[in-house]
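[step 3/7] inverse_fold.run input=structure_tokens len=151
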């Protein structure tokens, strides 16, 4: 009986450790995903602002900033820090579009599914440790039975 109680205690500790590791791992995964979404939004906003800035050159002679493919380098014209190649239809389209909307906080949308997986793993760890305890008891009983001469 002491082995079963000990294995129950160990299984609770193991399940708790798996849940704690899962909580931390889920937090970092959700934080990384939220950071990726914010960076993507910032890049989309930067492109939108660059194209909107390029609208001031619509209808003007931009041959000095146009490459052999007909793309205008509005970055060299002062709308970006580096090269920013755009077509005039892209610039017109950006004029008709509103600014990119800041994404909502997606932390819980990522955290909860990941944490759910870790909680299932904690439950599995709990069951496996308890089954190992039962297997240990069954093995011990079988060995005692064999030593006693199958009586």
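[step 3/7] decode complete -> sequence:
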């Amino acid at each position: 009986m002491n082995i079963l109680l000990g294995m129950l205690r160990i299984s609770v500790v193991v399940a708790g450790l798996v849940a704690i590791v899962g909580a931390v791992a889920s937090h970092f995964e959700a934080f990384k995903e939220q950071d990726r979404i914010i960076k993507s939004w910032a890049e989309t906003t930067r492109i939108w602002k660059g194209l909107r800035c390029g609208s001031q050159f619509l209808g003007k002679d931009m041959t000095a900033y146009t490459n052999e493919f007909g793309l205008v380098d509005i970055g060299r014209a002062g709308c970006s820090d580096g090269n920013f190649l755009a077509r005039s239809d892209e610039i017109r389209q950006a004029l008709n579009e509103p600014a990119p909307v800041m994404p909502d906080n997606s932390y819980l949308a990522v955290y909860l599914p990941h944490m759910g997986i870790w909680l299932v793993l904690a439950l599995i760890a709990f069951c496996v440790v308890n089954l190992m305890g039962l297997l240990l008891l069954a093995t011990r009983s079988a060995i005692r039975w064999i030593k006693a001469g199958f009586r």
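[step 4/7] annotate
The longest strand covers residues 72-73.
Residues 14 and 125 are 7 Å apart (CA to CA).
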